[in-house]
Amino acid sequence: MNLTLLPDLATFVTIVEQGSFSAAARIAGTTPSAISRSVSRLEREMGCKLLHRSTRKLALSDTGKTVYQHALEMLEAARQAMDRGSSLQTVVQDRLTLSVPKAVGHFVIHPLIPTFLARYPRVNVSLRLEDRYMDLIDDGVDLALRITDSPSPGLYGKPLMPIAHIICATPEYLHLHGTPQQPGDLRQHSCISLGETPADSRWKFRRPGKTETVQTHGRYAANHTGVRLDAVKRNLGIGSLPLFTARDALARGEIVQVLPDWEFISAYTGELWLLWTRNQHMPGPMRAMIDYLSEEIATHGASASTSETQA
Fold it and tell me: pTM higher than 0.90, yes or no?
C-alpha cells in the first residue's frame, strides 16, 4: 500500500462531503487545481475512475462509492486513535463551555457536574443554560446539548436520551375536579402552561389515527419547568412537563400522568443530542466530557447511544 496517498484519500472525502473541488479547496486552504491533481493521483494509483465530473456537478462512480466508505472508516479510526491517546494523558487545565437548554441543564446535566469536576480537577466547566439557539463557533461553545430530531448539518455528535413531554396532576386535584378521559375534557380544568406565547396554551395530542388540539385555560403559567412541577404538586392544576423532570415525583406517587394513552406533542420533544464541531484533534477535556456524559446518562436509565456520527 502506498501510504503517501493517505492525504489524497482525506482530500477525496472532503470533496465528496463538500460537493465540489472549489469548496474542498477552501476547506483545505489550497487551489481547485491542487485538489484535481490529488484525485488524479488516486485514480492513477488505483487504476479506476472515482468521480464523474461535469461542469455542473460531481458524481461518485461505483468504485468511488466503495473507496469513499473505506476512506471514511480510515479517517474515523485515525481520529479515534488520536482522541483516545489524548484522553489517556493527564488532562491539562482547560475550560469547557457547554450550551444546554434550561430544564435539561438543571435536572439532567448539573447533577452530574460535581463528579466530573472531582474526577478532572484541572478542568473548569462553564454551563450556559439557554433555550435560545447558540452558535458553537460564534458564541465560543465547545459542546452543545440540543433537543432535536434533525441536528444541524456539519456538526458531529451523538444522541444521549429521548425527551418526552407529558401532562400531570396530583391525585388530590383529580379527586376534587375529576380525571380527564379525552383531551377535550381539559377545557373544564385549570391548566398550567409555559405561558410565553398564545400557542403555549394550545395543547396538542396524538395517538394512532387521531390528532387533537385543545385550547386550554388556567390561572397560572410559568416558563420554568421546576416552577410548573412545584405548581402541580401544590394542586394548582394540570401541568405540562418534560418526563425527565416529573419522573421522581411520578415514582413517589406525588403526581400522576393525565391522558397516558395520548402522546403530548411539544416543541420540547425529540432526542437530546450532544453536538460539537469537527476538529482535526479533539482536546482531551472535550473527549472526557463526551465520554462521561454518555456513560452517566446511560447508567441512569436513559436510552443513550454509544455511536458518534456526523449530524
Answer: no
